[in-house]
UniProtKB/TrEMBL annotation:
Pfam family, one: HAD_2
Listed name of the protein: YjjG family noncanonical pyrimidine nucleotidase
First-level EC class: hydrolase
NCBIfam families for the chain: HAD-SF-IA-v1, YjjG_YfnB
Keyword annotations of the record: Hydrolase
């Protein structure tokens, strides 16, 4: 068995429960901005449409095809016009309200704190995320994750985005550690698994929905619950 000394985690969808926190925020915004007055869609439709749009825009952002500014501006425009609103009907400030509110939510995946308490005395723990720097720090502070991690590497701070292996190599250089002594844990197969593999780092594919993807190389490990990490580490 390999001897790992450093464990790298993705944040959103791996520790911080993005879907649950985003859903709670969007339901609040639906009421706050009185979107029901438009009479064209209900709260569930608003959430589902936003989720659909946001996933696709993040995919474009991760591939370098749109900017952070475009992602933030377009997700609500595309969501609301896709639900039937005219451009002049779009509520002013809803994007900013989402950006301010969502990172303060505190839902994390089951066993997050138990697993981090188990790992922290044994390994150096670090975050590697494509999320935006100021937002990720707020999420970690609000959900009391900050104190578990030594390095928090964002795409903004190093100039590269997962799955670019240079993002992982940036952290390796900073830690002065060899890739074989690190293990990456994340929910995004392309960004987390393939990116880590390209950098020579073993991977744990966090797949809570146990989704069967297209035929592709197996990760070093695959788990559906964070508690399974104890059997690996």
């Amino acid at each position: 068995m390999k001897t790992y000394t450093h464990i790298l985690f993705d944040l959103d969808h791996t520790l911080w429960d993005f879907e649950k926190n985003s859903e709670e925020t969007l339901y609040t915004l639906y009421e706050q901005f009185e979107l029901n007055k438009h009479g064209k869609f209900d709260c569930d439709s608003f959430y589902n449409k936003y989720k659909f749009v946001n996933v696709r825009l993040w995919d474009l952002y991760n591939k370098g095809k749109i900017t952070q500014k475009e992602l933030r501006e377009d997700r609500f425009v595309k969501t609301l016009t896709g639900l039937g609103l005219e451009p002049h009907e779009l509520p002013q400030g809803i994007s900013e309200a989402y950006t301010d509110m969502c990172p303060t939510k505190t839902a994390v995946f089951p066993f997050t704190y138990e697993v981090l308490d188990y790992l922290q005395p044994k390994y150096g723990l670090h975050i590697v995320t494509n999320g935006f720097k100021e937002v990720q720090h707020i999420k970690m502070s609000s959900s009391k994750l900050h104190n578990y991690f030594k390095e928090i590497i964002t795409s903004e701070c190093c100039g590269y985005k997962k799955p670019d292996r240079r993002m992982f190599e940036h952290l390796l250089d900073k830690l002065e550690v060899k890739p074989e002594h690190c293990l990456m844990i994340g929910d995004n197969y392309e960004c987390d698994v393939e990116g880590a593999r390209a950098a020579g780092i073993d991977q744990v594919y966090f797949n809570p929905a146990q989704v069967k993807g297209r035929k592709r190389p197996k990760p070093t490990y695959e788990i559906s619950c964070l508690s399974e990490l104890k059997a690996i580490l």
